[in-house]
Amino acid sequence: MLTKRQKTFNYILAAVLLVLSLFFLFPVIWMLANSFKGDAAITADMNTVSAFIPPALNGSFFENYVSILTNTSFLRYMANTLFYAAVLIVLGIVVNGLAGYALAKIKFPFRERWVLVILLLQIVPMETIITIHFLMIAKMGLLNTIVGYILPMIVNPFNIFLFRQVFLSLPDDVYEAAQLDFCSPIKYFFTMVLPMSKTVVATVSVFTFLGVWNDYLWPSLVFTSSDLLTAQIGLNSITANENTTMGQTLAVITLVTIPVIIIYSLFSKQIVEGVTSTGSKEG
Amino acid sequence: MKRKKSNSLLGMAFFGPALVLLTVFLFIPMILTLVFSFTDFFALNPGLTHFVGFENYINIFQDELFLQSFFNTVKFVLIIVPCQSLGALGLALLINRVTICKKYFKVAFFVPVVMSLAVVSTLWMQIYSPEGILNTLLGNLGIAAQPFIHSAKQALPSIALMSVWQGVGYQMIIFLGGLQAINPALYEAAEMDHASGWQKFKDITLPELKPLCVFVFITVTIGAFRMIVQPMVMTGGGPSHSTYTMVYNIYETGTVNWEIGIASTMAIVFAIFVMILTVIQSILTRDKEEKKHVNKKTKNL
User: Residue A40 is part of which domain span?
Assistant: First the structure.
């Protein structure tokens, strides 16, 4: 039972946090409210409370959104990014998953050495080799192609290690039973191992999606053609255009964030568990 | 014998695809970066490449722009690390105590984490604009309009604070996880001894959270070290290179000026810094875990 003093303390604490959270979120509230306004209204409202309140619902309410979706290639950029993410999720699960399984369950020469190498690779900051990646992709003639963008991003030491840790706990006897059943190892991996490890597959998929969706540096290097741009790079090219209004800019950045919000609300449990477990595991 | 052979074949069949990609896109680039860092490789004229020994390493530390990008990065780290780590810890402590609308508060401070670097940078360019909403709000408090990202003096702290705003919710969630993992019996015991709130915080909460603090502190440091997208989108490294960071310098030297040799040298120096931090982190946290382990063992005895 809470004493009266504790109750009052709780209310005060909640009030303080509420004020703090409103101050903290003012940029986001302002962004949402003004993404429905024309530039004249944004400027006019700036000095009043209306700066944080969306306009009345009328015919031109969604004007900024409609003009972004119809007058720019924004939908195309969104579709591109979804496509790249889907390809990278599938390839990433196959390549990193198979490797993780080999490191967990198949005895092959130098296996423990490879585990150590994979572990050590995680401390190399990717920024170090991005210049060389760019040079390699340019020399292969793959600049401004989907293949050039995707190739260096498939393999991921962190995901290999994650898969290995999960596969380690799989029972060995199922594998042996599958062998007796003349089930080929590759078939066994796709029909038994992956379905048995849905959680790690989901985690890797979610983090791959978020990585691809939010990545900026690598797609900005590889892509120059506007047909292939990802949403983040496309957003930049739209807002850099002089004809884009402030309201439209706010509408674009809201649109780019929507898929991520959907992913977070669908998978919030996995993501928060991922966040806190990386913290407690390494801390 | 036969079985062993088939296993090594099978192992390679499973590990092979990853190994090929690891070799082409990680091992070879890492070796090339190291090799190129000792050359004057200029990608637009590769025929004229010479081995120059440690010349690049000496030169970059006499190059004013490199030194500036280095010190800018250090400034970013010095602002971001304490603000973000302590801010996250403070928020986590408050939210851990509150019982009303707990879920709302968790989500509210996490919202900017969900937004991408490009989105946050674009949004804050509007927030920081000379006639923008922040200057209007400050004007109502009687504070004169500030130039923010348009002045060499304020650009770096402005971007650093924005970065804290974006990142703080992530570490808050980590700290909340840590706080919830503390054994409530410890607090109950302290209450029996009539310990004050501060004593409980100092003697139970902080020591229990210490390994997590080290983890958060170093991850935030590494993150701040890697700063590039925000200045790239918001200021182009300016005004007068005041927000030009190490990674930005590597990026421009390598991919815009094609001076792969120098860029590789900078990349190696950068990687050394980051790897030292990572090693410190793993030593400090492993040490703590071992101690905990020993403590548990002695308790069991």
Answer: 4-67
